[in-house]
Design brief:
The chain is mainly α. The protein is built from 3 helices and 2 strands. The chain has helices spanning 13-27, 33-38, 42-57; strands at residues 61-64, 67-70.
Length: 71
């Protein structure tokens, strides 16, 4: 499920690298590979992608626990 650890699901460094590349290509976004690979669960990976997309959509946004807000 989304809360399962990526490595426990059979992921390894090669698969993680391919996942990061495909995610960047699919969303056409600058997603830091280190942040994506640093996310342990599928849910955490989704948060990394969402934050990257929000930052590109609203470069001046401050992303906090309540969500994005303009500076």
């Amino acid at each position: 499920g989304i809360d399962d650890d990526f490595l426990d699901l059979g992921g390894d460094s090669l698969l993680a690298s391919r996942l990061a590349t495909r995610t960047q290509e699919h969303f056409q976004a600058d997603i830091a590979m280190s942040k994506l690979l640093g996310a342990a669960t599928v849910k955490q990976m989704a948060v990394v992608v969402t934050v990257a997309l929000l930052r590109e959509a609203r470069p001046g946004a401050v992303l906090g626990p309540e969500g994005p807000s303009a500076r």
